[in-house]
Design goal:
Shape: flat
Largest sheet: 4 strands, antiparallel
Strand content: 25-35%
Protein name: DUF1330 domain-containing protein
Strand order of the largest sheet: 2-3-1-4
Number of strands: 4
Order of helices and strands: EHEEHHE
Number of helices: 3
Radius of gyration: 14 Å
Structural class: alpha+beta
Pfam families: DUF1330
Length: 103
Amino acid sequence: MTAKGYVLVRRTVVDADQASEYLRQAAEVVAAAGGRYLVRGGQAEVLEGEPDPDGTGWVVIEFDSLEAARTFYHSAEYAPSLELAQTAFDRRYLLVEGVPQDV
């Protein structure tokens, strides 16, 4: 059985100009690494718990495996985007293994 790997990000924009540049750069790198955006900052509704602060967005990116997601994050290609993200956002970035699927 194989399982997909997911990047889950909760982010709040700190610098809008840097965030815009990050989004442009990161989209190219994600696609080149075989990732696919499932969620990228769309409308969210809190059903339980405290509401998110204004400007908070969610991102979910799917990769073929957890290892592929990890490789993307640590890649030389993503490094410039990662540097931008550190000034553009206050964020929490997780790698999560999906549910194993039959091949």
